[in-house]
């Protein structure tokens, strides 16, 4: 694909980051497996984890590279996507001065990370169908440094129209971050296919959802090598532990997460069909993720009732355009069955 948008990364990065001489970890240059390592002040008597881990996670990245057909130089791994969001903000936004743009309602960490770094947050509400209104967006996008698009979006579950995203990529002057945490549950291509065309594009994915590894904290960013270099320059040298690199590699090589994803997608349909029959359910948004956003007649009461029955869902009713709505993660088949039977019990108590 030919390059449509090229960026001058030097111009976009904060001055202090540009000037920074990064910490050089002892293990950066080592490729000789048999070398005698007297360089990092480790305890030489092995207990399994006595050596510092590979700061660039080369084995894991080369596995991800083959799987996704993306060059290693275009991959960055973080301690969860959350670390990557924070690093991008710190690389490109000057505290007390710059701003980011988010499309609300959306994932809460964009705003939290920005605020921790003293970065202003410009919010543009999604429309009634939770799509981006380009006119409204570009009216507010001027001078913002990073534009966050979450697709499929959390908490609404919908994909943002591809044509709209491409318009943004073509016309926005900063970094466009597309968060694809839920892409494996969607019937849609990843925007990683556009990396060579748009140098301002960063695609985020994670081990926390479809891959079933939320416990290890592993996020992936895919971007132009110039952006990846900046992230490598400012990350903690050993941001991904040896245990986590191993666990992630194992998941990619051996786990049958694809079967789990298929089950979750079938269960999403089953749960939708069951919920829509309940009289307390006013609306369910079509979902391309592993959750449903459901509008109830009495959301607070339903939330509390479920909680008392030991079922925890997420109250999103205070988010823009989400009045009355609870976000329900698709569980195992039995979890989903119990949820439906609890809600039916609530209906019986309520209306009899
Ligand atoms: C769950 C989720 C993530 C994952 O974050 P990690 O730090 O990788 O666990 C990222 N983005 C969105 C929108 C999410 O909902």
Care to give the gist of this entry?
37% of the residues lie in helices and 15% in strands. It has 352 residues and is of the alpha/beta class.
Helix/strand structural class: alpha/beta
Query: What's the level 1 CATH class of the largest domain?
Result: Alpha Beta
Largest sheet: 7 strands, mixed
CATH superfamily of the largest domain: Type I PLP-dependent aspartate aminotransferase-like (Major domain)
Outline: globular
Beta-strand percentage? Answer: 15-25%
Rg, Å, rounded:
22 Å
Number of helices: 12
CATH architecture descriptor text of the largest domain? 3-Layer(aba) Sandwich
What's the end-to-end separation, in Å?
63 Å
Binned, the helix content reads 25-40%
* Uncertain residue segments: none
Q: Within the largest sheet, what's the order of strands? A: 1-7-6-5-4-2-3
- Ligands bound to this protein structure: pyridoxal-5'-phosphate
Order of helices and strands: HHHEHEHEHEHEEEHHHEEHEEH
For this entry, give a set of tags:
single chain, 352 residues, alpha/beta, Aspartate Aminotransferase, domain 2, Aspartate Aminotransferase, domain 1, 2 domains, seven-stranded mixed sheet, 12 helices, 11 strands, globular, binds pyridoxal-5'-phosphate
